[in-house]
Design brief:
Chain B: Pfam families: Transket_pyr, Transketolase_C. Chain B: InterPro entries: THDP-binding, Transketo_C/PFOR_II, Transketolase-like_Pyr-bd, Transketolase_C. The structure holds 2 protein chains of 2 kinds. Chain A is an alpha/beta fold. Chain A is built from 13 helices and 8 strands. Chain A is globular. By secondary structure, chain B is of the alpha/beta class. Helix content of chain B is about 35%, strand content about 20%. In chain B, about 55% of the residues are buried. The chains are: A alpha/beta, B alpha/beta. Thiamine diphosphate sits at the interface of chains A and B. Thiamine diphosphate (TPP) sits at the interface of chains A and B.
Chain lengths: ~375, ~325
């Protein structure tokens, strides 16, 4: 019989047996640290290669960004013409994010976006005149004029209609993802917010819950460098949003938000992971807010150098140039697509302008469901 | 540029001037809120403050309502006088927990002072929809420990705000955003504090009392002028503070006129009208010639679209006719 070993306070290095003295968290901690390293940053990469890409997809992305831009242009002129009840929240320089995101989603997936996501809504099938109508208080708006401006969405399009409070769509997205997992449905929920929105409890509680429950959700942060007038350095000291994924033990991908393909790739990876049971991801897409917070805001407080630098990165122009250079589309096709989009937006404005205002007689109905 | 002598000031300017006055005179007083710095706040109340007072005292907060309210509580306990600006009153809901559980109850639990002002633009008529138009007073009126101030005139705005800042209790200061640029007063704002909890009889009358506050004051006065043409004499009482509620002034007026209408913009159900009608009944029942009537918003959220919003928030003809009906009954 072997002599009894003298007990040591230090566990033997080569022992594979878990030591009873070692706190159980130690193992979990290392797993967490490993997960924390699952962070990719492609935001500084050169534009994603077009080689070997499905041309149908490339053209779909092009059509999407061009339509989004045509819609933005129309809304800016509608604001100036006094067509809108209040202000307009421009999605300029966000087109690639909205469109790349929607292209990576399936129709059955839930879309929980915030204010600068016109491109995604349009791609999913929201009629443009309904969005315009929302900014005009018209009866054709998705809420029939009960709510307005950017508060539109349609559950029949698997698209959530967010309230003003940001990012209230985040907890809702976790609920949709929860329902998908609960019922065994093959659906992913995509929630979108801005850099400033990440400061709120809703963001942290939702991402944490989704991580802990391994829900099929993707949390996108559109980092456009500013929240109303508050710059990033006042919003958070962390400098990056994707890095926050580490704290929740989930993966993160940071990408160039002016490159529609880079956004598509990042979102596709995150959505595929969620769909296959791999849990949530934070995707950070970097761009710049090229207008005021809303149209009434002249944004004099923005550093002109920043605007100048980002002004060179028009996501629509850049993509168009690449497609033409690669021979995916011709100059003429591009011009035709742009002109078709312009006409489409003008037609929508006509419908929105001529649509009636809502009838107030039944305003007290609908406070409760039947 | 030569500085021009201004002969009038708006409700919004009165608030800005009161803030500047207190910032000038008390280094412990600071302002935290989303975009209050370079942006000047969503309504430009604090435009130019960052340059004048610097980032130590004018603090751009992250979008973190819970965090701001909680920070104010700690700073107040540590001896400062914090003011939190909420961009819209609607977003106070995000800070409900620290306001109710940390800020409102602390003094009662411990005896420590909690001198905080929570400022917020509220109310409708700007076509801003169900989550940008709410009247929040009764959510908080139910909570012991909070004072609630709702100025209705440019003349009162600065004095009530300064009294709120100097008060040793948490004060919720609700500014009617529809009035910001629509009201003006002559001269320049007075920085004399106006005692909280004292109503103001803004128009004397003998036939009926309208009890109201905030934007309702102007609607009541307009109705009173209209009804005067028909020989109906309307007294208008501006509560100025919802809590403490100056029921004495209200009761004295009702004892004189024998009739009362309560007017407010918040939804009728469980609104201030319910409390005031009950108090009038308690204090002046035997003087009343008619039941107290309420004029308030319908019990629905506030819609965006103009015809819908107008159908929900009390409009001038409805206000005038209701007052006439009770006066003549
Ligand atoms: C809870 C809450 N607080 C404040 C606001 C007011 N608000 C609306 S948008 C906004 C800034 C949002 O910034 P960010 O999330 O970065 O999005 P961006 O507008 O830059 O796209 C603020 C403060 C709000 N809607 N909800």
């Amino acid at each position: 019989m072997a002599t009894r070993k003298r007990t040591s306070t230090a566990p033997e290095k080569d022992s594979t047996k878990p030591s009873t003295l070692a706190p159980p968290v130690e193992k979990n901690l290392s797993a967490e640290v490993l997960a924390a390293l699952d962070i990719t940053d492609t935001s500084m990469n050169p534009p994603a290669s077009l080689e070997g890409r499905d041309h149908e997809l490339l053209k779909k992305l092009y059509d999407g960004v061009v339509k989004a831009r045509a819609f933005e242009d129309r809304m800016h002129s509608m604001y100036r013409a006094g067509d809108l009840l209040g202000s307009y929240y421009s999605g300029n320089w966000h087109e690639a994010i909205s469109v790349g995101t929607m292209a990576a989603m399936e129709e059955r997936d839930y879309y929980c976006p915030l204010h600068r996501d016109v491109g995604g809504h349009l791609m999913r099938g929201m009629p443009p005149e309904q969005i315009m109508g929302s900014f005009m208080g018209k009866s054709i708006a998705p809420t029939g004029g009960r709510d307005g401006t950017l508060h539109y969405g349609r559950l029949d399009l698997n698209t959530y209609n967010p309230p003003s409070h940001i990012p209230a769509n985040y907890p809702v997205a976790t609920g949709m993802a929860f329902a998908a997992k609960y019922r065994g449905e093959d659906r992913v929920a995509v929630a979108i917010c801005g850099d400033g929105s990440t400061s709120r409890a809703d963001f942290h509680e939702s991402v944490n819950i989704a991580g802990a429950m391994q829900l099929p959700a993707v949390f996108q942060v559109q980092n456009n460098q500013i929240a109303m007038g508050t710059k990033l350095s006042m919003q958070t000291n962390s400098g990056s949003f994707v890095i926050k994924a580490a704290a929740y033990g989930i993966p993160g991908i940071k990408c160039d938000g002016t490159d529609v393909i880079a956004v598509y790739d990042a979102m596709k990876e995150a959505i595929d992971r969620a769909r296959s049971g791999g849990g949530p991801t934070i995707v950070e897409a970097v761009t710049m807010r090229m207008h005021g917070h809303a149209e009434h805001d002249g944004a004099e407080y923005v550093d002109p150098a920043l605007k100048e630098e980002w002004g060179k990165r028009d996501p629509v122009e850049l993509y168009e140039k690449r497609l033409i250079e690669a021979g995916v589309i011709s100059e003429e096709e591009a011009a035709e697509t742009r002109e078709a989009a312009r006409k489409w937006a003008i037609a929508a404005r006509k419908i929105a302008i001529t649509a009636p205002m809502p009838d107030p007689t039944n305003i007290e109905e609908g406070v409760y469901a039947d | 540029m030569p500085t021009e002598e201004k002969t009038s000031y708006s409700y919004l300017e009165a608030i800005g001037a009161a803030l500047a006055h207190e910032l000038d005179n008390n280094d412990d007083f600071f302002l935290i809120g989303e975009d209050v710095g370079a942006f000047g706040g969503p309504f430009k109340v604090t435009k130019g403050f960052l340059e004048k007072y610097g980032p130590r005292r004018i603090i751009d907060s992250p979008i973190a309502e819970t965090g701001m309210a909680g920070l104010a509580a700690g700073a107040a306990l540590a001896g400062l006088r914090p003011m939190v600006e909420f961009q819209f009153a609607d977003f106070i809901s995000c800070a409900f927990d620290p306001i109710i559980n940390t800020i409102a109850r602390h003094h009662w639990r411990t005896g420590d002072a909690m001198p905080i002002v929570l400022r917020a633009p509220f109310g409708g008529r700007l076509r801003a929809g169900p989550t940008h138009s709410q009247s929040m007073e009764t959510y908080f009126a139910h909570v012991p420990g909070l004072k609630i101030v709702m100025p209705g005139t440019a003349e009162d705005a600065a004095g009530l705000l300064i009294a709120s800042i100097r008060d040793n209790n948490p004060v919720m200061f609700f500014e009617n955003k529809y009035l910001y640029r629509r009201l003006s007063a002559q001269g320049s704002p007075s920085f004399e504090p106006i005692e909280l909890g004292k109503a103001n009889v803004v128009r004397e009358g003998t036939d009926i009392t309208v009890v109201t506050y905030s934007a309702g004051v102007h609607q009541a006065v307009e109705a009173a002028e209209e009804l005067a043409k028909d020989g109906i004499s309307v007294e208008v009482v501006d509560l100025r503070t919802i809590k403490p509620l100056d029921i004495e002034t209200v009761a004295a007026s009702v004892k004189k006129t024998s009739r009362a209408v309560v007017l407010h913009e918040a939804a009728e159900f469980m609104g201030m009208g319910a409390e005031i009608a009950a108090e009038i009944q308690k204090e002046a029942f035997w003087y009343l010639d008619q039941p107290v009537e309420r004029i308030a918003a319908k019990n629905t959220p506030t819609p965006t679209s103009p015809p819908l919003e107008d159908a929900v928030i009390p409009q001038q003809p409805e206000i005038t006719e209701t007052i006439r009906k009770v006066a003549k009954a």
